[in-house]
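Thread: Newbie trying to understand structure tokens

Hi all, I'm a second-year student working on a class project, and my supervisor (Dr. K.) asked me to get a predicted structure for one chain before our next meeting. I've only ever worked with sequences, so writing a 3D structure as a token string is new to me. If someone could post the tokens and maybe explain what I'm looking at, I'd be very grateful. Here's the chain:
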Amino acid sequence: MHGPTAMKPWLQPFGMSLADGLRYFDKMVNRHGCLDGRNLGPQRAARMWYVTDEVYDIPGYYGTHAGELLGPNLYYAAATQALAELAPVARPQDAERLTARARRIRTAIDQRFWDAGRRRFRSLRDADGPVPHVSPILNLYALHLDVAAPARLPDLVDCLRTDFGLPDAQRRDFPLYVGNAFHHLISQCFRHGLATQAIETVRRHYGAWLDGGYSAEKAARLKGETFDRRALGRRDLRYERLDQLTVELLLGVR
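---
Reply by user tm_fold:
Sure, no problem. This is what the structure looks like when written as tokens:
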């Protein structure tokens, strides 16, 4: 026996767990239908909103923000939609309510964050209204998580093509190292007819490391090295740059 009916014993506990997790965030929703930091319960600063290190450069995004942030709302919309799709099997009594809620959250994101002039989602809103900051990575996540309305897809595909572009041969900090953003970019390029850009991005991003000096001998020698983790920690590198350093060490190009 196959299909959702056969999976019901597995899906029900999963659906209940997901619903329990979302219940915490449901309390943070404001009158517009978005998560709002002003309704946030006690937490460790900066633990809730991490999406990518790029947000450290967005004023007001790091820590507890008194307003609405695009990143958490994208995840909230995607999780609610996932629960709505599970509901007919896992939580049939809640199916209609969850479907309506997922639709409301996506509509709220579109109304609260879409910048019609720049044709991108804004990164955040504060007490004074929308903040004129646009993050290519957050717009990538809106596309990857299927949160954006169909009418927004051409503009978000244009974001893949123009806002990201291609890594430069001399640029070692193409901002897509962690959080699977690089892989999401590649998959969305393939999905939306930008296969040439996807292949060239992979070639430039990884090929430069390999062309820069990888060899089996260097990799073998690296295995015998020891590293001072405390000293590395004192370099105060952000997560993504530290991940990049680790990859370069593993490839033997450092």
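A couple of things are worth pointing out once you decode it. The beta strands are 68-69, 114-115, 120-126, 129-134. The longest helix spans residues 4-26. Feel free to ask follow-ups in this thread.
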